[in-house]
Amino acid sequence: MWAATRRCSANRIGYVSQPVRSSATRAFFHLRSLRVLCLLSRPEMGTFGGHALPGSFFILFSVWGVWDLLRRFYRRRAYELHLSSTPEPKYYNRVSSPLTSGCNGRGLPLDSMLKAITCLIGITGEVITGFKDGKFVHIGNIQHCTMYSTFALSGIIETLMYYGIIKTSIQVEYVFNFVALLSEGFLFLFHLHGRTPLDVYLHMLLLGMILLTIISGFAEVYMRDQPIYAIVRNWSTLVQGTWFWQVGAILYPVASWMPVWDGMRKESIPAAANLFCYHLLVDFVGIVLLASVMSLRLGRINFRAAAKPFHTQHPEHTIEDLSADMSTELTLYAASREAEESSTMLNSVHS
């Protein structure tokens, strides 16, 4: 009977009790099967959609983040090399990627607002489905509310900072996002008890990408003018998003063409690790292709300039720097001429 119940949970179908000897035992197993059906049909992350939805947002935010940082970097680079006459602020890393032009010609922190709104909607859904008789009865809903709350808080803080309501360093964005990622990692780490070995390893791979995101974020804070660390952070976020989709497809296949994985089979774990490496490779190639398109469309840098290692060479002087140097030289030259003329006049008077 226990084996039949485990097969029922793995296949996400209802358990039909076998004929038993007594009516009391039959009623007991019938009630137990109904309870299992209720738990399995409850909307939570234990479905394909529950993994695909957060994965989609990770993919959206990471691709938008890469596009925005490359746009700002290439435009600044083109301006420094005098290939563009449009002034561009100096490049600095940041977590949020606000639109440069929005309503009434002002910018709009669309990504931060979208992150806050979607997380608040997720919290509402988890609270509605997690309560029973005025009490929180589903621990999974509580964990999801905690994760959504941390990401919603980071989005709210980013929005308030953009509009100047909170006046502080831009690095505070990293602090709140680190808190959100750490919360996500801890919840994943202690969310796997009683799962199959395959289920545990699938989520541990996600935990590794969360740690990589945090490490690259710390590197961004200390070297804010180097885009490579922001690219690594967004790449690891992109891998989280695509792997969320893959985990949902492995654990909860919804189409007939999706393979059914055996969570207890020992060959399933190395097969999943091999599949994860393909996610790393494909996501990296996607970012490289995006960077190539951005360099051709927005960089406006010729072949010789593009061949230089941007991250190793010193920044070149801009037009403002050259103008300031020329003004300083003219001022010093005029001062020296005045001193020379006054000295000549004094000598003539004495003579």
Essential attributes:
disordered N terminus; mainly alpha; TMEM45; single chain; transmembrane helix
Produce the secondary structure layout.
Blueprint: H1 2-11, H2 23-41, H3 48-80, H4 110-130, E1 131-132, E2 135-136, H5 139-162, H6 172-189, H7 197-222, H8 227-251, H9 268-299, H10 303-306, H11 319-350
Antiparallel strand pairs: 1-2
Helix pairs in contact: 3-8, 3-9, 4-5, 5-6, 6-7, 7-8, 7-9, 8-9
Structural overview:
By secondary structure, this protein is mainly α. The chain has two domains: 1-41, no CATH class; 42-306, no CATH class. The chain has helices at residues 2-11, 23-41, 48-80, 110-130, 139-162, 172-189, 197-222, 227-251, 268-299, 303-306, 319-350, and strands at 131-132, 135-136. A two-stranded antiparallel ribbon has the order 1-2. A hairpin with a 2-residue loop joins β1 and β2 (135-136). α7 packs antiparallel against α8 (227-251). The model is unreliable at 1-21, 27-44, 302-306 and 310-317 (pLDDT under 50).
Structural class: mainly alpha
The tally of beta strands, per DSSP, is: 2
Large-scale geometry: elongated
Low-confidence stretches: 1-21, 27-44, 302-306, 310-317
The average pLDDT is: 78
Strand adjacency order, main sheet: 1-2
Domain module count: 2
Helix content: 55-70%
Order of helices and strands: HHHHEEHHHHHHH
Number of contiguous helices: 11
The fraction of residues in strands falls at under 5%
Radius of gyration: 29 Å
What distance separates the N and C termini?
Answer: 123 Å
Note the main sheet: 2 strands, antiparallel
